[in-house]
Each structure stands twice: as C-alpha cells, then as structure tokens.
C-alpha cells in the first residue's frame, strides 16, 4: 500500500490530478484539484490511499497526513464511500465538520453530498470524540485506552487495521484495560475472543 508520492504535478482536471513519479503518471482523485493549480509543473508530495475493487484500482490523494487520516475515518463509517468522503472534505472546513460530529449536529452533516439522516447519525455514533483539539483525525479511536499501555494501543490499532469498527472495539476496551502486562499479540487474541462471544 502506498503512503505518499513525491513527483511532478503534470495535469489537473475537474476530478483528479496526474503526478509523474519516475516517468510513471499516477491518476489521483483529490477533493479539490484546482487547489493544486499553483503547483503545476513542480515537485509535490501527496499523501495517498489506494482502494482496490474488482473492477478498479483507484488512488485518492491528500495535501497532508491529517487530511488523509480524516478521509480514512470517514470511509470507516457505514454509508460513506471514498468519493463521498472526498466530497465531504472538499465541501467543508474540516474543523467545522469535526465540531458538527462532536456536537451531534445532524442537520449540518446532512448538508454534505450523499449524506442523509441515517448516515449523519452513523457519523456521530462512530466518530464523535475521536479527534483532538486541532481537528486532527490521528487521535486514537479509543480515547479511554489506559495511559502508557503501549501494547494495548498497538493491539487496538492492529484491530482497526483489520477492519473492526470503533463501536465494536469500545465494547471490549474496558475489559482489555483490566488485563495487565500482556503483549500486543495477547491483547489482540483476548479482544477477538471477547468479540466472538
């Protein structure tokens, strides 16, 4: 999986940009292609996320790691696909979006393209309280993870990477905190056992 590209911005269209990396042109879907126009024909760094489907391999691009992290949080919500997530990022000031999520502002969230009441409610359920004061999406999904328990933090990140949702992990997180001196692997095994019950 790609993390970021360093290459020359060679093309801008209404929906994507093309970045030349070592003489290979990568088509990258971005939230607002024209925001990149002042960088045309220059070397850029762009953070990317690849979505692989049966009929397509698609790259989505972001100006920084925080924007990418926000995108990943959004697509973790049931009902929000990659294109909808890009549209949400493009349409909003991200701090406003995060404030709406944290304040359960369903009406505000329903203003985004493709977000109905059910999806807006799911956004609040899955994402409220998961961002830090600066609006960054890189804060741990589980705020309550015990301070200093690196093994548990690593286990939670690994479970998130496997596709387990925050709502599922919250149910077992307190029980995991009660277990002391386990390795990351042991925490993962314990969490899986709890979630299978």
UniProtKB/TrEMBL annotation:
<dbReference type="InterPro" id="IPR012340">
    <property type="entry name" value="NA-bd_OB-fold"/>
</dbReference>
<dbReference type="InterPro" id="IPR011114">
    <property type="entry name" value="RuvA_C"/>
</dbReference>
<dbReference type="Pfam" id="PF07499">
    <property type="entry name" value="RuvA_C"/>
</dbReference>
<dbReference type="InterPro" id="IPR036267">
    <property type="entry name" value="RuvA_C_sf"/>
</dbReference>
<keyword id="KW-0234">DNA repair</keyword>
<comment type="similarity">
    <text>Belongs to the RuvA family.</text>
</comment>
<feature type="region of interest" description="Domain II">
    <location>
        <begin position="64"/>
        <end position="141"/>
    </location>
</feature>
<dbReference type="Pfam" id="PF01330">
    <property type="entry name" value="RuvA_N"/>
</dbReference>
<comment type="subunit">
    <text>Homotetramer. Forms an RuvA(8)-RuvB(12)-Holliday junction (HJ) complex. HJ DNA is sandwiched between 2 RuvA tetramers; dsDNA enters through RuvA and exits via RuvB. An RuvB hexamer assembles on each DNA strand where it exits the tetramer. Each RuvB hexamer is contacted by two RuvA subunits (via domain III) on 2 adjacent RuvB subunits; this complex drives branch migration. In the full resolvosome a probable DNA-RuvA(4)-RuvB(12)-RuvC(2) complex forms which resolves the HJ.</text>
</comment>
<protein>
    <recommendedName>
        <fullName>Holliday junction branch migration complex subunit RuvA</fullName>
    </recommendedName>
</protein>
<dbReference type="InterPro" id="IPR013849">
    <property type="entry name" value="DNA_helicase_Holl-junc_RuvA_I"/>
</dbReference>
<keyword id="KW-0963">Cytoplasm</keyword>
<feature type="domain" description="Helix-hairpin-helix DNA-binding motif class 1">
    <location>
        <begin position="72"/>
        <end position="91"/>
    </location>
</feature>
<keyword id="KW-0233">DNA recombination</keyword>
<feature type="domain" description="Helix-hairpin-helix DNA-binding motif class 1">
    <location>
        <begin position="107"/>
        <end position="126"/>
    </location>
</feature>
<dbReference type="InterPro" id="IPR003583">
    <property type="entry name" value="Hlx-hairpin-Hlx_DNA-bd_motif"/>
</dbReference>
<keyword id="KW-0238">DNA-binding</keyword>
<dbReference type="GO" id="GO:0003678">
    <property type="term" value="F:DNA helicase activity"/>
</dbReference>
<feature type="region of interest" description="Domain III">
    <location>
        <begin position="147"/>
        <end position="197"/>
    </location>
</feature>
<keyword id="KW-0227">DNA damage</keyword>
<keyword id="KW-0378">Hydrolase</keyword>
<dbReference type="Pfam" id="PF14520">
    <property type="entry name" value="HHH_5"/>
</dbReference>
<comment type="function">
    <text>The RuvA-RuvB-RuvC complex processes Holliday junction (HJ) DNA during genetic recombination and DNA repair, while the RuvA-RuvB complex plays an important role in the rescue of blocked DNA replication forks via replication fork reversal (RFR). RuvA specifically binds to HJ cruciform DNA, conferring on it an open structure. The RuvB hexamer acts as an ATP-dependent pump, pulling dsDNA into and through the RuvAB complex. HJ branch migration allows RuvC to scan DNA until it finds its consensus sequence, where it cleaves and resolves the cruciform DNA.</text>
</comment>
<dbReference type="GO" id="GO:0016787">
    <property type="term" value="F:hydrolase activity"/>
</dbReference>
<dbReference type="InterPro" id="IPR000085">
    <property type="entry name" value="RuvA"/>
</dbReference>
<dbReference type="InterPro" id="IPR010994">
    <property type="entry name" value="RuvA_2-like"/>
</dbReference>
